[in-house]
Amino acid sequence: PNSDIVTIVISYVIMFGYIVLFIGKVPSYKHFCFDILVRSKLFIGFFGVLIVILSVLTSIGFACYYGEHLTLIIVEVLPFLVLAVGVDNIFILVHSVEEEMYAHIEEPRYKIVGLALSKVAPSITLTAMSETAAFFLGAISPMPAVRAFSLFAGQAIFFDYLLQISVFVAILSIDVARQQAKRPELCCCVKLKSPDSLKPSLSVNDEGVACDPYDVINEGLIRTFVRRFYSPFLLFAPVKLCVMIVFAGTFLISIYAAIHLPIGLDQSLSVPKDSYVITYFKALNDYVHVGSPVYFVIQGDYNYSTEQGTNKICTQTGCDDSSIISQIDDYVHIPDYSRIATNPSSWVDTYIDWLNPNSPCCKYHPDNHTKFCPYSDVNASSCIPCLQEGTTRPTPEEFTKYVSWFLSDIPGTTDTSCTKGGHAAYYHAVDLNKDNSINSSYFMAYHTILRDSVDFTDGLRKARKISENLTLTLNQSNVTVFPYSVFYVYYEQYLDIPHKTIITLSVSIASVFLMTFLLIGFKLWSTILVTLTVVMFLIDMMGLMYVWGISLNALSLVNLCASIGISVEFVSHIVRWFAYSDAPTREDRAHDALVNMGSSVFSGITLTKFFGILVLAFSKSQIFEVFYFRMYLGIVVIGASHGLIFLPVLLSYIGPRRAKDNPLSIKESGVGE
What distance in Å separates the CA atoms of residue 96 and residue 572, rounded to the nearest whole number? Predict the structure, then answer.
């Protein structure tokens, strides 16, 4: 509905507005006017958002150029994913450049930007390449929706990365020059006087560099809070133990929930909450006694005309006890298992009755044995029965000759007329060849009431199982029985979606493992910790889906694929900073990573997405509420909890050893030379 379009637009406007307004530092109260004019980052935030939009549009353009079709799922999910990934990198770049600028305020801008990139560019490259590889490999999924989304997402993240390390870095460099020249962002032609807030406020060395970057007054509220309060509390021994117990227990419970995750997409979710169609669906469930018709189709070179061929189908005297129709009749007695509610209609049995010489149905004109004489013919009393008196079964030639008459005979409504005519009930049930032989035919029954996706999927699964048994009964290599119902085309995807989900997510996680191992410097233990946290995040997301009533389908699987990319952003930056930190102990290195990267991740992904997602709660569409508001909120909350709570604690216990080659402490003289 149009109201949901407005809701989505408001959601993205809030996220974009947050980025533009809060990507820079909070102005100090002492020099508020100068900070708001010179240190603001409105244009930086604007260009950051613009780069995200351009990367999405570029991906769509490339994909459409080589023949991929743009779908509604892609339009709805792709901007959310690229915004999460892109904004995180933007915040990390801006915060790193600001830190270096205020630590080396008098240095040339190329040196400041170079120092910042030496610290964070490898981490950004690691996450971007891991996510790109994960999505491109996820494109091998047999599900069209997942395949298309993975292709679009992989391209969008790659283009976003290229634009960020080239165009956005260049824009940052220009902004550094502007700030060093003390020029306002909105009026660069004016040069202001510099207050003391642009210089280190505490102890500095002989070169004018702050001894401790944490002591610079320009640190920022979130980072200050993380350094002074959050990190010491989280890494307090009793708190760490509680964190490990809670996350381990949640993970085990989520494994059980993931195994029992409901499958399918309830059709009532496709309409707004206040739609009259909801009442219609409820009435169907309450008052209708049977479900959709199901057709068991015999396909192949099956000979119905022989006695043996007829006996394997019919239910009359002389027919096989385990004939096709008899077996379906038996399944009617166990409807809770078979999902079959009514006895099937059998054109073969009706045809045999129609051929009975004692009935007024099958007759031919005495002067033309090839001309059918229906009961309504004025000369019907003088017409000759097709079969001789006392004959109960036709010969193969007679079976083939008269079947077309049977299918064209319109049934009567009185006892003296022919009520067995097959035109009304079976005209479309039998496909005849030109020589009157039968190419294929079906036998129709009805499903039981199928109320939700689980019922519909189970009905399809049981119908296929029944058809397999019927095929074995016919026992001919070139003859098969398959079921058909109008809803099968919608629910066939759910028969093997658990298998497809496992394959798709496993391939994506394996690619994250491989790319992380290559780009983090062949550090196996760091790679294992990244992969472990991503897997825990994914399982906990499925646990949340179970608790919140979100079923597994193409929509939720696309969101799960997107969540892998977002979880890498929550995890990889922190692990890499921890691996290369110079702090002496694991706890100190976890604290260092949490302060330097955790604060940027929190402000970049968590806050940006959180406020925008809350708006989706007001959507009238149930699909938006369930698969976007609930799942997006879960991705942000669970991702932040794993990246900012569980991971630092895990690293403080079993984090990798400190790397010998530490790019985080690169010498200043090595930049730009």
Answer: 16
